[in-house]
């Protein structure tokens, strides 16, 4: 994974500072030696070393002998500096000073050390009282600086927009408090150890039974309930090995929920006995959920995916039956299986079902205490507990962004260390072993955590009518801090080869940026703000296209793979399919909408190449292609009618509504539904006729009545076939490139004849054009445009 990056805070807010700290990684990559040393001695969560100003070396000049006045004054000044530094100690009470621990006392409350021991927190030394006053002054100075910043912002709003706009917008925008980019690994101090208290604990467990449970780490787990249904037969070993390999290459890279060596050993035990009776029922639920997710990535042929999806649904049904949520003895396998079922349901475009299973995973994880740092646990168990929790946390954030639903996990309820960014083979019962010097940290979960940690703040920002410029700048600074913590190959300015498998992880930050920037496309914002939103979204789309183009380069030859299951011989298409997900398909679709509206057709073709490779592997990808074909039809109509220049399209409310995409599916951020019918009135007045394509082909009605069925949110088979496929979209973008080149090649005094709709070239779905032809057209048009910009073309040239 990328790692958790550099440490820093944003200004008043959080400005990233890139000072290297032990135990964290610098902007260039992980300090592998320091990182692994921090894990070598303990199975608990890693901690970072922090330094203070007094730890830094002094830069004072060395005094020389002599009795000149200058020497005397210099010596006196240095003495004053040393005395001042000696006074600048952290304020500590008498008890903390004696115990030599950090004191967190304030002017109004005692420190936690004295509170836990019921001691009086007192300060008897003059230096401590003086330093306490200095700290109070510093706090007041910080508050004054923040107040000045707000006053300046309000004054600028007043000058630009007047009082009404000031009341509407400025008061709505709270001061941003984005989280630290680096992990804050300071754990909350627990109560003191209660010695000789075993008899009390035993009595509480016995006589509290039926009233309350012990906290999860101290809970005595009962035996798993017997099987409530007949265990299914084992799938063939060949099928299991294939699906496990596909699961490892796709889902496990992003969500390492399972300690793979341990899981493989358990699978071997099951197949050696020939049944599931030796394993808990919850483990069997996880096993079939893994197989179901393995069917999401078929490496043989995309034509086999419909059959693979049916196979996956059958595995998911077995997993749901085996999960048995009626039991009150939950285990980590219950949380793991629920999360995998949420992922599978979402990837087959059953997003509401995915949301329900995610809620189940969150509540199970909280019930068994995964959200709280406890221990000490055995090394493998402690690491997997952290990984499962953070996988649920990341999935909750990403799904909330994608489908516009509230978060299920509050940040203040999450107090657990970050997982280790090393491969499972380095996590052994005796500890996390040292990785080779050439080992590259895993990419996936560790990279997503620092990105999604600000989603709760982002969701609050998205509730406002519009986002102010200074707020966008604050987020940009934060994004820059996250990007600087990534390995160099994952930076947007890098030019080196990028493994296609990493695309889904790398583009997570771009997805978050896009969700932020497009918020100001709303009609509630001013035209200038909407134009700026389009520009910012286009920059995200162009960065996305750069990542994809880098993945098309020839990969460097490696002496040996850092991943024991990785297959370097896979083609670009196969490795790109490993990163295919609903989130990636949706992001590519949003990027292509913006790029086509902004006439950046070459970048749109780059994104299109990845979407066409994914093809039917994701149902949502087909729906995105169908929507994009519709959008391009409308765009070409605007251009042919003379309404397709840059400024006209940015002010066209219909086109802006189309390019906003799934914003219109979010209750809080949509705007096209204002004034529409709702509820029963909508259902009673817009019944579909039998001829409607959403009406079932057999003309089925409800209970013998004449009321036709309502449209499904998913595409019918007919709709999935008739939009023309990705080849048609390639041809449409190719035609737009040709027309753009033709327009730019005309002299200023040339007047194009009016368009004749009767002679428009119709792009039939069956008129196939190879991808190479479109790519050649794109490169040719680039050369032509550069030639046009460097020399003037006359009528003689055209003739």
Question: How would you characterize the overall build of this protein?
Answer:
The chain has 799 residues and is an all-alpha fold. Helix content is 52%, strand content 1%. The chain contains 31 helices and 4 strands. The strands form 2 sheets. A two-stranded antiparallel sheet has the order 1-2. A hairpin with a 5-residue loop joins β1 and β2. The radius of gyration is 31 Å and the shape is globular.
Strand segment tally: 4
**How many individual helices?**
31
Q: How much helix, percentage-wise, in residues?
A: 40-55%
First-residue to last-residue Cα separation: 59 Å
Query: Runs with pLDDT <50, length 5+?
Result: 3-74, 83-89, 126-130, 163-174, 559-569, 686-709, 749-799
Content of β-strand: under 5%
GO molecular function: DNA binding; DNA-binding transcription factor activity, RNA polymerase II-specific; zinc ion binding
Coiled coil: 130-157
InterPro entries: AtrR-like, XnlR_reg_dom, Zn2-C6_fun-type_DNA-bd_sf, Zn2Cys6_DnaBD
Region (Disordered): 1-91
Q: Summarize this, please?
A:
GO terms for molecular function: DNA binding; DNA-binding transcription factor activity, RNA polymerase II-specific; zinc ion binding. The protein has helices spanning 32-40, 69-87, 94-99, 112-116, 126-170, 198-207, 237-249, 251-254, 260-273, 281-294, 305-323, 332-347, 351-367, 379-403, 445-452, 455-461, 469-485, 503-506, 508-517, 527-551, 572-578, 582-597, 601-614, 619-640, 646-650, 653-659, 679-685, 717-722, 725-745, 771-790, 795-798; strands at 8-9, 15-16, 427-428, 431-432.
